[in-house]
Amino acid sequence: MITTSEEAASFCARLSGCRYVAVDTEFLWEKTYRPTLCLIQVAGGGRAAAIDALAPGIDLEPVYRLMRDGDVLKVFHSASQDLDIFYGLMGSVPGPVFDTQIAGAVCGYGEQPSYARLVDEILGIDLDKAAQRTDWSLRPLTEKQVDYAVGDVLHLGAVYEFLDGRLTDTGRREWVSEDMSRLSEESVYRVEPRDAWRRVRLRRPKRRALAVLREVAEWRERSAMRRNLPRAWVMSDGALAEIAHNAPDTAVKLERVRGLHKGFAHRPDGREVLRAVRRVLRQSADEWPSIDRPAGGEGVDKSATALLRALLKLRCEQHGVAEKMVSNQGELARLASGDSAGVRALHGWRRKVFGEDALALIEGRIALTQRDGVMRVVDIPAAGSGGTRKF
Question: In this structure, is the dihedral angle defined by the CA atoms of residues 249, 250, 255 and 260, taken in order, positive or negative?
């Protein structure tokens, strides 16, 4: 357990020459907009430690330098939340990065394999996860908490080395390289308040409702950021949706919205919301967002989507890779409707595993058959050479 700036600097200096370090964090996020970093666990070169991010006066800059060091690979498991925390503190994203969850999914360990599962199946070690849900902000930490925290990186290096070797042996390095590189892109973690409305679902929205939602959701996002409060503590999604649908432009109307605190409409927050609604009502309809039709809605051939889903399952089983690593339901629906824009399954290694066959299935060049409980892909003869089959 490291609690001083001098210990942190000394520890990180010893790791600066390592080929890779294993990294994890413990944090709290229930009561704040930004997560409160409590611990940083790092292992490498036969050393492992938990750095107390809440220790009075501790300087974490040596840790940040290590995270920025382009010569040291940073190994995480399920990296996105950890990287988001570092981005908020450092102003940049650690890199290069290797995510053992992504690699595990490509190597056949399930859709989103947990760290405990990989340690168990690869190393034969059963981890004790009893301390997982403890309050990491309370001090002093117990010996059990520290053991648990350090355990999250103690075996991560061995898991990485095994998966890295498996990727090399199976020629699947390129399968994960794009996903790993994307983890270090700042745009993934940069919050754009103007786009906050896209995270809130409205039932059968009209364009005016989307415009109101955009304005009020931006206000909520900026308020939550400024006060460092969870979005729902500023305004619930339910209240936000009701305001979007009804566009209340007076305090009397705003008071009728369910889920708002008593008196909200007459407070500064309420006046800000009313100004946002009135801005929309003064706008031309040409300025309102267009309605994006969700994948799988009208115009989508559900039987074709089901066939693509069956083909995806077949090909992923044959290649020993998790289905979600290749495609998802939304992409399958877009493919079925003839919309291939932005479909990741049509690019890179995913196209080889599934995309080419998906296009051939849609175009009627192949079909799926089942015999003796086994599904197979069969070619359909071209017109004039034995006829075609519709499916």
Answer: positive
Nearest alpha carbon to residue 85 among 156, 26, 31: 26
3-state secondary structure of 26: strand
**307-341 confidence digits (pLDDT tens):** 999 999 999 999 999 999 999 999 999 899 888 88
Name 52's bridge partners. 39
Residues of the chain with pLDDT under 70: 131, 292-300, 383-391
Structure tokens at 139: 């001090």
**What pLDDT does 383 receive?**
60
Determine how many CB atoms are found less than 10 A away from the CB of residue 5: 15
Strand partners, 75: 22, 98
Lookup: tokens for 91: 């102003």
Cis bond before residue 230 (omega within 30° of 0): no
Kindly list the distances between the CA atom of residue 173 and the CA atoms of 93, 115, 160, 350, in Å, as whole numbers in the listed order: 22, 20, 13, 13
Amino acid sitting at position 60? L
Looking at residue 296, its pLDDT comes to 47
Are the CB atoms for 376 and 330 separated by under 8 Å? no
Whether 23 and 42 have beta carbons less than 8 Å apart is answered as yes
Nearest to 120 by CA among 149, 76, 67, 158: 158
Q: Residue 27 has which token pair? A: 């944090």
Q: What is the DSSP string of 1-53?
A: -B-SHHHHHHHHHHHTT-SEEEEEEEEE-SS-SS-EEEEEEEEETTEEEEEET
Helix/strand/coil for 106: helix
How would you classify the pairing of strands 20-28 and 36-44? antiparallel
Query: How many Cβ atoms sit within 10 Å of the Cβ of residue 167?
Result: 19
Distance separating alpha carbons of residues 33 and 221, to the nearest angstrom: 9
Burial readout 90-101 (b: 16 or more C-beta within 10 A, e: otherwise): beebbbbbbbbb
**Cα 311 from Cα 304, distance rounded (Å):** 10
Please report the pLDDT score of residue 388 as a whole number: 43
